[in-house]
Amino acid sequence: MLAVLSILGMIALDQAVKWWAVHVLLPLGDIPLLEGIFHLTYIENRGSAFGLFLGQRMLFLILTPLVLAAIALALRRGMIQTTMGKWSLYLLFGGAVGNFIDRIFRGYVVDLFYFKLIDFPVFNVADIFVCVGAALFFVYVQFQHKSLEKPEKEVGADG
């Protein structure tokens, strides 16, 4: 139950920030929080992360539900063995749904956080969840996940 509420909270936070961006930031275009370093800048992203796959909305409308189903299946079948591993997938799920909602209802994803100092691509709350979730999942797979297969018996020199 905590997982579902957490995911719903992630989606709600993402959508609330995007609502603010559309209704307040869009008319202004840009709000420097730290001039020349970090700005809130309204962008309509019609691709994926870093603007890749521009104009491929249908690809994301097909691919996202498949990824969400795979995550739900992995969690449901108990394939993820640690709390960190589970939270990595909760973050991925919440972020993916947040951006999926934008793609369905707007036809693009609203982005607004801009590290101007290094000209980093503009991103949103859902992107943060996806990136943190992906990083945690990488750590989980590398250091926490244990194979469920039984190791084969080694055949010694004796035969």
Can you put this structure into words, describing what you see?
The protein is an alpha+beta fold and 159 residues long. It is built from 4 helices and 3 strands; from the N terminus they run αββααβα. A 3-stranded antiparallel beta sheet has the order 1-2-3. Helix 1 packs across helix 3 (83-105) and helix 3 runs antiparallel to helix 4. The chain is elongated, with a radius of gyration of 20 Å. The chain starts with a helix and ends in a 15-residue tail after the last helix. The model has no long low-confidence stretch (mean pLDDT 91).
State the helix count. Answer: 4
Strand order of the largest sheet: 1-2-3
Q: Report the radius of gyration as a whole number of Å.
A: 20 Å
Order of helices and strands: HEEHHEH
What is the terminal-to-terminal distance?
A: 53 Å
Chain-averaged pLDDT:
91
Shape: elongated
Q: How would a textbook summarize the main sheet?
A: 3 strands, antiparallel
Percentage beta strand: 5-15%
* Class derived from helix and strand content: alpha+beta
Q: How many E strands?
A: 3
Helix content: 55-70%
Instruction: List unreliable stretches of 5+ residues.
Output: none
